[in-house]
From TrEMBL:
Keyword Lipoprotein in record: no
Pfam family, one: PepSY_like
Protein name in UniProt: Ribosome biogenesis protein
Entry keyword set: Signal
Source organism per UniProt: Bacteroides faecium
Record keyword Signal present: yes
Sequence ranges assigned to domain Putative beta-lactamase-inhibitor-like PepSY-like in this UniProt record: 59-150
Signal peptide: 1-24
InterPro entries attached to this UniProt entry: PepSY-like
Length: 167
């Protein structure tokens, strides 16, 4: 009986060890360190930014950070120019009333809302983005703050990135 218990524990310990060794170790991936002019630009724009992680999206440096309780993606070009801030909202109810009402009155109101964002730009007006799906169809709907549908983007292919406008 004792041998059976010991054997069972040995199997449990071996399985546990194997399960931990199968996990990938993200610490092996070196963190992106952008040029100092870009990190300085973030500090000037959002002095209270915390928990900053950098990544590249296309030619842009993107800081994923927390500012006063909001998780932001702050985009900079290679010259340290701020091009966009993306703020993911928890709920469609957090949108300005004009956008919420426009969406409720749109052809997409019966679709499932998957994500909601507010995009802020240095030059262009702020936009709200509502990502929706119906079956295998997925769209990003871009609204002005006054509630006008500016454009929609088919994201059924999986690329749901909100890219800065090209000027």
């Amino acid at each position: 009986m004792w041998k059976f218990k010991f054997g069972a524990w040995a199997v449990v310990l071996m399985m546990t060890a194997l399960s931990f060794s199968a996990c990938s170790d993200d610490d092996d991936d070196p963190a992106l360190v952008p040029p100092s002019n870009i990190t300085e630009a973030l500090k000037q724009l959002y002095p209270a930014a915390q928990n900053i992680e950098w990544e590249m999206k296309g030619d842009y440096y993107v800081a994923d950070c927390w500012v006063t309780g909001d998780e932001l993606d702050v985009w900079f070009d290679a010259n340290a120019n701020w091009v966009m801030t993306e703020n993911e909202l928890d709920s469609i109810d957090q949108l300005v009333p004009a956008v919420y009402t426009a969406f409720q009155n749109s052809d997409y109101s019966a679709w499932v809302v998957t994500d909601v964002y507010v995009l802020t730009y240095p030059q262009n007006p702020t936009e709200s983005v509502i990502q929706v799906k119906l079956g295998s169809q997925r769209y990003s709907l871009y609204f002005s703050q006054e509630g006008g549908l500016l454009h929609k983007k088919d994201i059924s292919n999986g690329d749901d990135t909100n890219w800065p406008p090209t000027e």
